[in-house]
Amino acid sequence: MASASAATFGSLTIETPAHRDLVIEKLVLWHFLFSLTFLIVAMLAGWFFSLQLLQAYPFAGIEHLSPGRWRMIHTNGVAYGFIANAFLGALHWAIPRLTLQKVASKALSWFIFFAWQFVVLATVVGLIMGKAQAVEWGETPIFIDPLAIAGLILVAINFMTPILRSKGPMYVTLWYFIAGLVWTILVYAMGNYLPQFFVGGAASGALIGLFIHDLVGLFVTPLGWGLMYYFVPIILKKPIWSHGLSLVGFWGLAFFYPLNGIHHFLYSPIPMFLQYGAVISTIAVELVVTTVIINFFATIRHRGDMLRTNMPIRWFYIGMVFYFTTCLQCAMQVTLTFQKIIHFTDWVVGHSHLVMFGVFGFWIMGFMTHLFPRLLGAKGWYRAGWNEWHFWLMGISMLVMFFDLVFAGLVQGFMWRDLASWESTTVASGPFWFVRTLSGLGMLAGMGFFLANIAMTAVHRRTIEPTGQPAGESSGGATLATA
Amino acid sequence: MFESKAGIILIAGLFMFALAFVVMGLLPWLIYLDKPEQTMEDLVAGGVTAEFVDLAERFPAQFKEHFPDGVTRGSYASALERGRDIYVAEGCWHCHSQQVRPVSNEDLRFGPVSHAREYHNVLQRPVLFGTRRVGPDLIREAARRSNDWHVAHFFDPVLVSPTSVMPTYPWLYDDEDYPNRDGMSLIAYVQWLGSWLPEYPYFQGEGPMGPTERSGDEVALARESEGS
Ligand code: HEM
User: In percent, how much of chain B has pLDDT > 90?
Assistant: First the structure.
């Protein structure tokens, strides 16, 4: 950990400040801890909701524990509590290291940290008290929205400053971060205000579709891919295979992804020609995604053994396999033929879980596995075996949940079309819902191993011997090599 | 340009977002702009539903307490608004859709296919199309069930539908288990959904005037053999 030094690249001389001056490790740690806390709360909320579908909800009749309200805590908790916190933490790590610049203000970083936890907690309380807003994934009560938007603007200022100050060509990761930071503010403001105050009826349906889709596509996806472009080459110690494909992937996403909005309401009263447009651009996204996937799999060529030996890489790449799967699924399920049967069924719920958790959740698990020992001041994990348990329990449960819900969706869709009585369709779904509840237990158990490992690593941080797995990257100029 | 800071902020960040907003958001908005959104007054201008009157007759003391004006358009409007708020707060819209699609025999199961004009009112702001059906669609629910049925159903769905996975809502009832103001409002709201159609309710294979010529199953079979 040398103090500030300088590196020369041709005519360019760049200061390389020490890691500890750039990254507020404590803040990253706290973001991660809160992220995991909200994840557990949200998973429990989802798990208890799944009990309702088995007619076994333990808190029936208690107003503030009503399953309908807790379902909203489940979805908002994972988006704003788990994913947003994890990404904020990771951005605090990646951006200063990539740009070799500090964030705009460390005080601001801490302020954002507290403000964001307040936003998430206020959302949870608001939803429990019955103040939801009728925008899927934007249920955040109306009076909290301005605070959330102010928070997002501060986040953008805090991170854009180092990016704009940095010199030389920008690495792919930063493209995604810049765009993602701008988009998130716009998406949030659009979805939470226009349908509520300005537009009603079918047109508000179009906006809500755009919001649901953009929240995944313009907030979670760019930040997630940006982090992959950052962590994967660093851990593999080799550059991304093709810069050209990185360009295609980024601009393809920027162009096609937002045009998908209305595909959430196919066959609805929204004009049909717009629905066709959304269908076509959704299929186009699949092509773009393929280029990104090819780029990453070409990068890991000749390093395939890392999938076995390196936990973070394994999380990242299994997440990419799932990403390709969901996008392929997307290209199929968006066709009007599929829509007839699978819309409104559990098929879609299976799809959501594979994207939100199988992809982004797994990536988050990956970089948390990579960074936690370092953040805790340990040389490695307390038990490498527990990390394996974490991975396999999560991976298998995820697959079980996905296939279970996809098949459940097909059964429901065909029974509905065949005019079976509604009761018989929920009875037929029962076994599928039971398996889903079991797979939820598997996921919770997997998280148990992870949390226990984090706690034990913190306790024994001074005595842990390095296990050969790198506990976080080396500091300083290493990042330049990949830029 | 494609790798510069300004290029990414302006073209990707702002322009691409704006483009999609225009195509996927603004265009449908403009298409419906000439159709004025119905206000609460417009919605109750035609009077109140028979089910609302029935609530007042069935629970006279409680109704008087919750709606001191009696059966008026004003009371009805306030009930609908409050009912909608509860529908949103309780997350009913995550288990029930409010749109009948023109496919998958939904018109046979639920009734007439939804039309955009049905959603141009303040109670559909934001619209409650829904994306998931654990329970059936509700946009044609008006008068399909009696108030009595709903009173029992919201208290504990299993009472009337033994295999139901719908949650219980006992807090919509007062100490003597009569529906309270929220309960009555929610029932009024559910009984409103679809009441604007010239003919309602619709039962599977049966129109409002009795059995239709062919049963739903027969139509479905015929459609299947036609391959649609
Ligand atoms: C313990 C594990 C989990 C269980 C048991 C569970 C269960 C559920 C249930 C029952 C629903 C409602 C489905 C319906 O309406 O029929 C749901 C929805 C959802 N969950 Fe989970 N969940 C779990 C973990 C997660 C995780 C980790 C994430 C994301 C990181 C997630 C994201 C979502 C999303 C986005 C939806 C909305 C789906 C839609 O409306 O299409 N869930 N979950």
Answer: 79
CB contact under 8 A, A200 and B37: yes
**ipTM > 0.85, yes or no:** yes
What is the number of domains present in chain B? 2
Question: Residue B208's pLDDT band (boundaries 50, 70, 90)?
Answer: low
Residue B95 Cα: closest atom of ligand 1: 15
Specify whether B172 is located in the same domain as B153: yes
Encode pLDDT of B96-146 as tens digits: 999 999 999 999 999 999 999 999 999 999 999 999 999 999 999 999 999
Q: Which domain holds residue A445?
A: 304-457
Residues A249-301 pLDDT 10s? 999 999 999 999 999 999 999 999 999 999 999 999 999 999 999 999 999 99
Q: Where are the alpha helices (H) located in B114-172, listed in sequence order?
A: 147-155
Residues in chain A within 8 Å Cβ distance of B101: 267-268, 340, 343
Task: Choose one of A349, A398, A438 to mutate for the ligand 1 pocket test, by most ligand atoms within 8 angstroms of C-beta.
Answer: A349
Return the structure tokens found at A136.
């899927």
Domain count, chain A: 1
Residues B30 and B44 in one domain: no
SS3 B202: coil
**Residues B24 and B122 placed together within one structural domain of the fold:** no
Q: Which residues line ligand 1 (CB under 6 A)?
A: A 43, 46-47, 49-50, 71, 74-75, 78, 346, 348-349, 352-353, 356-357, 361, 440, 443-444; B 94, 131-132, 134
Q: Are residues B174 and B81 in the same domain?
A: yes
Q: Is residue A429 part of a domain?
A: yes
- CA pair distance A428, B163, nearest whole angstrom: 11
Q: What is the CATH number of the domain that holds B109?
A: 1.10.760.10
Residues B112 and B176 in one domain: yes
Distance separating alpha carbons of residues B136 and B133, to the nearest angstrom: 6
Domain that holds residue B138: 39-226
Report the C-alpha gap between B157 and B145 in whole angstroms: 13
Number of C-beta neighbours around residue A272 at 10 A? 12
Q: Do B99 and A268 touch (CB under 8 A)?
A: yes
Verify that B14 and B109 share a domain, yes or no.
Answer: no
Q: How many other C-beta atoms are found inside a 10 Å radius of the C-beta of residue A33? A: 16
Could you tell me the two tokens for A176? Answer: 């995604």
Cα separations in angstroms, A7 against A12, A362, B23, B173: 8, 35, 47, 73
Query: What is the per-residue pLDDT across A390-449, written as a single tens digit (0 to 9) for each?
Result: 999 999 999 999 999 999 999 999 999 999 999 999 999 999 999 999 999 999 999 999
State pTM to two decimals: 0.93
